User: Fold this.
Amino acid sequence: MSKSTNNLSPASLGEIKMTQAERDKRKALARAVRPRIASTIVLIHGPKENPKILMGQRSSRHDFMPSVYVFPGGRVDRADSYADYAGDLSPRSARILEAAFTPRKARAVALASVRETYEETSLFLGQKAETNRNINNPSWDAFRKAGLKADLTGIEVFGRAITPPHRHKRFDAWFFVKHLGMPGLPKIKDSTELLNVGWFTFAQIKELELQRATQMMLRVLEQYLSTDKPPADIFFSHATRGKFNTDRFPRA
Assistant:
């Protein structure tokens, strides 16, 4: 990955956008909260040079980053470790994730992005396969009833970002990308989590309301898509002693 992407920092993307309610919630905390593991996926369709990307707008009622456009994603749930699946992570993605997690948890982090995509856009990322595994989770139960297993094929990790300590909610978010090879765009719809769900080009996304972290990861994605072969490590944004740092993970 290019040196310019290595040096990319949220601090280079302008002013932090926080509502007064968010500032008040953080001010009420005695110390920074511990980040929770989260998973986000960028679904692309069409040519890598100018793909369409699935995004939606967070509700204005959210107490964390309201009204901005984001990729499908959310916290990793316990149920994700038990979900039935088809395909598997690539050796590259498995190696990178397993530098931070056990193999089972690494797979769960990727599966969480599949589940969140269904919950937020009604899009199943699955393969037709019978399964009797019922783990008492509404979303994974929907896969089972549809005769699907979550499909990990083609899902690659390309970035990681830990929410800085000035936020009242923090996530250790892992960013995945998957190219959808079907002829037409799959059907999607809004949810209580994401509104105005749609497929956008990079040019169109620049006109949307975004948080700095999303802007940063879009630049990382453009660099990732411009390479012929995925790099052996991933972009990693985190804060240390109040300063933003961009790094590579895992370190050599």
Summary: The CA atoms of residues 157 and 176 lie 4 Å apart. The helical segments are 3-6, 20-27, 91-97, 103-121, 138-145, 202-205, 212-225. The mean pLDDT is 88. Residues 103-121 form the longest helix (19 residues).
